[in-house]
Specification:
By secondary structure, this protein is α/β, with parallel strands linked by helices. The chain contains ten helices and 23 strands. A five-stranded parallel beta sheet has the order 3-2-1-7-18, with helices on one face. α1 runs parallel beside α7.
Length: 437
């Protein structure tokens, strides 16, 4: 029997792979299938962002003079309906997993004690084990961080009402996405970040981000205290007291590994693995957030597959040197950064009109495209693009980057029309430009 601890993206993918190869697999899960992605991560943001974009789109079209009326959000109802959808997603994932032959045990408190699997206090024999227990949300040690009115992605659904003034602590992707959402919902939003806001994006992309977050205030520095007695009343930054009704921590993730002992770990507490996703204990593997950053669902899935393949005797290296990621605001911002030592030429252009972007041509907010290619052979080295739905295009274009495909090979593609992403034309432009040199 092979045991997989955690039914999030990494654990579920590993289980499906192993079961598909004829192995007996038991998936151990404390709460519900789907992990952070379904409950407190990707799907939570998607559900809230769909509402936020709808509100902002209606507002934009009203300003453009093509529609009348306005929309506002009923937050408790949004959360109720969102949880109903999440339950449906759980049902779909559970049905798919069981249909593949995987046994799922819920309420399973699993731990590794010096190389031995213990489930709900009882020892179990295992042929192999994959640890895919995910991560928790990191909350910095700030006085007042546990006051009523402080929230994380796991607890924002408990907000009784939308706060008038919301402070978001963090300067990364989650902070930006929640700022966009809650500003659309009518809150006065201030982001507090220590140094650089969204350092993962280039200045060219940040111009569009600033448009999406035009009504969000960004302040720099470290919060010294969250004030209040029985409820959040404000924050103190650089000695200045500022009033707020709620504080949302968007300060990153931290691996949950304290219950796994006897194996080597990294300085941040994550489980140390080799290229085969093996831990320092023979027969035990780890995948996903428990192995440390980057805390992205696609990475967790890829590592889950890799851990399963190692058990099946088909080891493969998980290459995380280049992978595309997306920030979801008014537009999707999808980026695949070139390797550090890569030298190439970058082609840039505004994005094109299409579904969800046609009316934005009038004010120039259709997004932009940036493609970096090698001048020597035309290999696609990296890209950055912003428009509705660019994450879909980025998935496949990122694969081409990893495979070393050239713009000359890709320039004969036939795009699906209509589409709001013009990367196909950018690739053709790059191919033509290189041919002329």
């Amino acid at each position: 029997m092979i045991y997989v601890i955690g039914a999030g993206p990494a654990g579920r993918m590993a289980s499906l792979r192993l079961a598909g190869a004829g192995k007996e697999v038991t998936l151990l899960e404390r709460k519900a299938i789907g992990g952070t992605c379904i409950h407190d991560g990707c799907m939570l943001v998607c559900g809230l962002n769909d509402v936020a974009r709808s509100i902002n789109t209606l507002s934009f079209l009203k300003k453009s003079g093509v529609v009348e009326g306005s929309a506002s959000v009923r937050f408790p109802e949004v959360i109720q309906k969102l949880e109903e959808v999440q339950k449906k997603l759980e049902f779909i994932l559970e049905r798919e997993t069981k249909a593949a032959g995987v046994v799922i045990e819920y309420g399973a408190e699993a731990e590794i004690r010096d190389g031995k699997l213990v489930v709900n206090g009882e020892m179990r024999e295992a042929e192999n084990i994959i640890i895919a227990a995910g991560s928790g949300i990191y909350v910095p040690e700030i006085p007042g961080n546990d006051l009523p009115g402080t929230y994380t992605a796991k607890t924002i659904r408990t907000m009784p009402v939308l706060p008038k003034r919301l402070a978001i602590i963090g300067g990364g992707i989650s902070a930006a996405e929640f700022a966009y959402i809650f500003r659309a919902f009518g809150c006065e939003v201030t982001i507090f970040c220590r140094s650089v806001f969204l350092p993962v994006l280039s200045e060219a992309m940040m111009k569009a981000v600033r448009r999406d977050l035009a009504d969000v205030t960004i302040k720099y520095g470290t919060i010294e205290q969250i004030t209040g007695k029985d409820q959040v009343e404000g924050v103190i930054l650089n000695g200045e007291k500022m009033p707020f009704d709620a504080v949302l921590f968007a300060t990153g993730m931290r691996p949950e590994t304290s219950i796994f002992t006897g194996m080597a770990k990294n300085p941040d507490g994550s489980i140390k693995v080799n290229e085969k996703m093996e831990t320092s204990i023979q027969g035990i593997y780890a995948a996903g957030d428990v192995t440390g950053a980057p805390y992205f669902t696609p990475v967790a899935r890829l590592q889950g597959f890799a851990a399963a393949d190692s058990i099946l005797g088909l080891p493969r290296r998980v290459d995380l040197e280049q992978f595309p990621y997306t920030i979801v605001l008014g537009l999707d911002y999808t980026v695949c950064v070139p390797k550090k030592d890569a030298e190439g030429v970058t082609f840039s252009s505004p994005n094109i009109a299409g579904p969800e972007s046609f009316w934005h041509v009038a004010d120039g907010s259709v997004g932009s495209m940036h493609l970096t290619v090698s001048k020597d052979d035309g290999k696609i080295l990296g890209f950055a693009t912003s428009a509705p739905g660019t994450s879909i295009v980025g998935t496949y274009l990122g694969y081409l980057v990893r495979k070393g495909v050239t713009v000359h090979e890709f320039s004969s593609m036939l795009e699906v029309h209509p589409t709001p992403d013009g990367m196909y034309s950018m690739i053709r432009l790059a191919a033509d430009a290189l041919d002329k040199e």
